[in-house]
Design goal:
199 residues; alpha+beta; six-stranded antiparallel beta sheet; three-stranded antiparallel beta sheet; 8 helices; 9 strands
């Protein structure tokens, strides 16, 4: 009986000494990834109107805006600071003004280069955890969720991405690694930048 009491006492002391963050579960990994600043940062779309290079005007984003009838451009001579020719003078169409008007901060109205929040990330699931001492790799799926008409035009909400991020165990429990610590493990910033479409 004495051995049972001792074992129970030791187990109770061990459990009270551990915090919920000492055990890297899928639920904890989900909470830490979804709550991180890098994951919560909205995707900004930068639009330049006025004279732009042919490379910018024919970029996938500008082509989408042209297809929606939000911008148009007329061919112009390139100023010395923009090359190679041809160049385009890009302007918002009336439809484009209606779309972008409510998305711009007041001070950006007179600017020719501005950003609008277009999409936010949504964590779909943590799909695997691989631990090695005080480091772990967590695989997860996520997707873009458009925040407005611009985001809906530029980001496919049905497309999922796969990322792998490093976690490190500290004295107060597991934490997601925000920046890349080593060549072997990847921080959250790089994991989101290097995301691949899910199979």
């Amino acid at each position: 009986m004495r051995n049972v009491r001792t074992a129970l006492l030791v187990s109770l002391m061990w459990l009270t000494a551990c915090s919920p963050r000492d055990f890297l579960t899928r639920r904890l990994a989900t909470d830490l990834i979804a709550g991180s600043d890098a994951f919560k940062t909205a995707q900004q779309f930068w639009l330049r109107i006025g004279i732009v290079s042919n490379k910018d005007y024919l970029s996938p984003e500008y082509l989408v805006l042209q297809r929606h009838g939000w911008i148009n451009g007329s061919n112009v001579n390139c100023p010395p600071e923009i090359s190679p020719p041809p160049c385009w003078d890009v302007a918002l169409t009336p439809n484009g003004v209606n779309v972008f008007r409510d998305l711009l901060p007041t001070q950006a109205v007179s600017s020719q280069y501005f950003s609008v929040p277009a999409a936010r990330r949504e964590l779909i699931a943590v799909t695997g955890i691989s631990k090695n001492d005080d480091l772990a790799e967590v695989d997860f799926h996520w997707k873009w969720v458009p925040m407005n008409a611009v985001g809906a035009a530029l980001y496919n909400e049905g497309l999922e991405y796969v990322s792998t991020v490093a976690f490190r165990h500290y004295d107060d429990g597991w934490r997601v690694v925000e920046t890349t610590p080593t060549k072997t493990y990847q921080g959250l910033d790089d994991a989101l930048k290097d995301a691949a479409p899910a199979p």
